[in-house]
Amino acid sequence: MTTGTRRVEAPRPGWRTLIRPWSRAAFAMCAGSLFTLSSVTMQPAHAAYAIAQYGEPKYPADFKHFDYVNPDAPRGGTLVLANPDRSTSFDKFNPFTLRGNAAPGIGLLFESLATGSADEVASAYGLLADDIDVASDGMSTTFHINPRARFSNGDPVTADDVKFSFDTLKSPKAAPQFAAYFADITRCVIVDPATVRFEFKQHDRELPLLAGGMPVFSRKWGVKPDGSRIAFDQLAFEKPIGSGPYLIESYDNGRTITYKRDPNYWGDKLPVRVGTYNFERINYKLYSDATARLEAFKAGEYDALVENVARNWVRRDVGKKFDSGELIKREFPHHNGTGMQGFILNQRRPLFGDVRVRKALDLALDFQWLDRQLFYNQYKRIDSYFVNTDLQAKGLPSPGELKLLEPWRAKLEPSVFGVPPKQPDTDPPGSLRANLLEARALLAQAGWTYRDGALRNAKGEPFVFEILDDSGSSAAFEPVIAPYIRNLQKLGIEAHFRVMDFAVYQKRLDAFDFDVTTIRFPDVQVPGADMIDRFGSKAADEPGSGNLIGLKSPAVDSILRALVGAQTREQLVDSVHALDRVLINGYYMIPHWYSATHRVAFKRGMAWPKTLPLYYTAEGWITSMWWFAAPQ
């Protein structure tokens, strides 16, 4: 059982459906599947069709298509999908501003200068750009725009549009995270009408990928017939002018939207686009909650369901249509880093300021019971922020890790310098009782003792907090939270489960107005400066940032600087391992569980390529690479 990521934009294939646009990795993951792009090998300046983090890109300059697509896939039909995340409505088409909920799939309208491949962790191939020139000193990157590139209104994509997109996204009119992500790109310079140069504040191996992954839109978006312009942060249902494969055909009441393939889409013959976007239309229907969404699928109202709830997969994704083969269930393996999902303990709340308290709350979660009773033994416990990758810290710190950690030894938990802790276990010889006894001792050390019917501090204040969730996922998560609350009650802790509409929930999270909530951080194959937004001290004070934890740690900030500035794969791994050690020993989250497969139920007649991508999310893979084998 997993939850979706906290929604701050409409999902998108590539930089679209796969992760929030607020992560740097997202900008460098354009179109098709889950591709993590960061840190480019800095070769002497020359124009290239692609760039790679280390060595050379997998695909040669004359490649015809990616290995994991079907270049002969038939086109046509209407793909109908449900809510791709927790949102139950939308109130805008602009995915780049902070307020409001953008329409699902809106990223289908936008493209970027470069895009990644789903069978490499760090390569970028030209999309809007037909060559990429990384300066020999690493202080700038120049992109030449493909002369065939066109916006949906027929205008050519120009250097003016790229600069306009960059300047707009970095301005106060866009969500504040963009300015943070682009902070080290000092400016975008127009070299000529078809060429732009991004100049960097420092030699950061991620910046060329960040620049290449920036979504590009027309400078005419928001311009009225009289020539006046609607402020970017006021754009709502003004249709975006992008260069992507789809156009908005229709929408209704913020609950449904249909995209139609642009008949004049310019990029069909590009090697990075061959075999992709095979549906003539993609229609999203938004349902009020997870139960309604599931029942609608079983009634045949939409074509494919990505199932994130193990109980549903085993017990509810069944019935006559499954028995007859009209609906099919299948698990698809992936090699994604699984990200971190868990209960976030908001460090802005003094209640969670003591690491002993946070560890005690971790001890109260009985994962083994949940896995047996609710998850049908389908999951493994998360024990790292980078689980399922070689970036997970294991064993004792290496010399490279110690170099980063030693200057901060006095400010770090001593356990950081040992073997990373295992998550609490209740399988024999372990037990919940033993874990709760350990938790009680930790709480007592932190000044919390049981008296007058509750766990209280020295001031007599009871230990009370709220677990916040939204209505779209609460039905699935309540069976998990209820036993956890019962375990906390045994310690004298009073926890309340509060559910609210997603829009209100999102505002609460953007304002960091919560005690505890459930979050799944996006999958990361090659961490980059997106980690600064997620764990950096400055981001902790930026409303709407990814630092929901509220973490402010000079040690973490120092490690993050080393991570972003890593010049070799070894340096990157050492810095990520060091970060993982500090985070996992800080008990800032109560980790949940993960699976290495995507569970997908779909209608008979849908098809996909024989070769699976390595790094992908199911929703983006379906929209970008599946097709209808049977007539629709």
UniProtKB/TrEMBL annotation:
Signal peptide region: 1-47
Domain Solute-binding protein family: from-to ranges: 126-535
InterPro entries in alphabetical order: Peptide/Ni-bd, SBP_5, SBP_5_dom
Keyword annotations from UniProtKB, A to Z: Signal
Pfam families associated with the record: SBP_bac_5
Name assigned to this protein: Extracellular solute-binding protein
